[in-house]
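Sorry, any thoughts here?
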Amino acid sequence: MTEQEKERREAFMKTYGVTEEEMDFFEYIDGKFELLKIIIAALMVLLVLAVLAAIAL
């Protein structure tokens, strides 16, 4: 983690009165949602390919 990221994290924690543990949890959940968005995008691509294959038949 860079110095700028540490400062941003500390400023967020002070602004919203969040503890270190809560901040870790928020970052964990954010990472899970990022993974979920990637999975949904991949499934949408597969759906489009399936529709195009069905049209081609």
